[in-house]
Design a protein that fits this description.
Number of strands: 0
Helix content: over 70%
Distance between the termini: 42 Å
Strand content: under 5%
Shape: elongated
Keywords: Membrane, Transmembrane, Transmembrane helix
Structural class: mainly alpha
Number of domains: 1
Number of helices: 5
Order of helices and strands: HHHHH
Length: 145
């Protein structure tokens, strides 16, 4: 199986989660604070989109790390700002119509970005000898003593 398809499946799930989030946030009338929406659009969605595009043109040197890094950053941001930090866009602060859909969509975004980041690091490990050597050096240090 083509490894590009393997990393595209979690990316599609991530994008569907983002579409669900956009619809649910509109229905629930979520008020995002300064920079939250921009970060989610630019880093959590534009970054992985560019990364998957690079992967599809077989530029694994930049595509896989970008896919991993931007999806991981988006996952961290979503967990912190929408589940932990107290602000108007936190899932606990959203009430009324669409609150359940908003919470479900946010969970889909977190899971989708986490799996996308995992697929990105998997591809990066497979395609980059330098990254593979660095990871293997940490996981299985040599007995050079």
């Amino acid at each position: 199986m083509d490894q590009r398809l393997i990393v595209t499946v979690p990316y599609i799930f991530h994008v569907v989660g983002g579409a669900m989030l956009a619809i649910a946030a509109t229905v629930a009338s979520v008020e995002f604070t300064d920079g939250q929406l921009e970060f989610m659009i630019l880093v959590a969605y534009l970054g992985p989109t560019i990364g998957i595009g690079l992967v599809w043109v077989k530029n694994y040197v930049y595509g896989a790390p970008l896919l991993f890094g931007s999806a991981a950053a988006g996952c961290w941001f979503a967990i912190y700002f929408f589940f932990i930090n107290e602000n108007p866009a936190n899932v606990a602060a959203v009430t009324g119509d669409g609150a359940g859909a908003y919470q479900s969509a946010m969970i889909a975004v977190v899971v989708g970005s986490l799996v996308t980041a995992g697929a990105g690091v998997w591809l990066w490990y497979r395609e980059s000898e330098g990254f593979r050597d660095a990871v293997d050096g940490v996981v299985r240090p040599s007995d050079s003593e």
